[in-house]
């Protein structure tokens, strides 16, 4: 899996001896990390494809939520990618975003910085690296965005 290998590479820059792993968890609740967990929430650019009609659309409001925890040298990151569904089909299923490697890279680079700040209490004084914007011609559709429905869309 692309996410895990990119994350493993970047996590090597974290404190020696600590092991970190990343897993997907679609049940993460934004703003409610479990006790002892930190949150990082970010939007990125990605594409979606409707499994009913095959139509594709780009979006720069693809929300990604990370919850992370370091305890006894074991770090865990849980990730949830927020879905969108097709506005042309009735009862279209929610689709997972297809995020390209460059934006996965940028997301995980920012995540590792956040881990340094929140889990290792380092202050790096650096800002977030912006994601690569996709060309989006139509307006964002809150009715078809899972993150909008949960009130967390494009808040980063
Ligand atoms: Zn469709
Ligand atoms: Zn939205």
Beta-strand residue fraction: 25-35%
So what's the overall shape?
elongated
Rg result: 16 Å
How helix-rich are the residues, as a percent range?
Answer: 10-25%
Distance between the termini: 26 Å
In order across it, which strands form the biggest sheet? 1-4-3-2
> How are helices and strands ordered from N to C?
HEEEEHH
Let me know the average pLDDT.
93
Largest sheet: 4 strands, mixed
Give the number of DSSP strands.
4
Protein structure class: alpha+beta
Helix count equals: 3
Question: In the residues, how many domains can be counted?
Answer: 1
Report the uncertain regions: none
**Which distinct ligands sit in these coordinates?**
zinc ion
């Amino acid at each position: 899996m692309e996410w895990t290998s990119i994350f493993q590479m970047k996590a090597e820059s974290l404190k020696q001896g600590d092991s970190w792993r990343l897993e997907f968890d679609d049940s993460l609740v934004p703003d409610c990390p479990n006790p002892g967990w930190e949150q990082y929430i970010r939007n990125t650019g990605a594409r979606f494809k409707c499994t009913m009609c095959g139509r594709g659309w780009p979006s720069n409001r693809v929300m990604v939520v990370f919850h992370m925890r370091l305890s006894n040298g074991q770090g865990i990151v849980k990730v949830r990618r927020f879905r969108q569904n097709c506005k042309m089909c009735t009862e279209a299923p929610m689709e997972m975003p297809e995020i390209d490697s460059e934006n996965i890279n940028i997301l995980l680079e920012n995540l590792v910085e956040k881990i340094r700040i929140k889990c290792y209490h380092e202050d790096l004084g650096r800002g977030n690296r912006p994601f690569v914007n996709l060309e989006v011609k139509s307006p964002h559709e809150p009715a078809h965005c899972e993150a909008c429905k949960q009130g967390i869309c494009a808040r980063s």
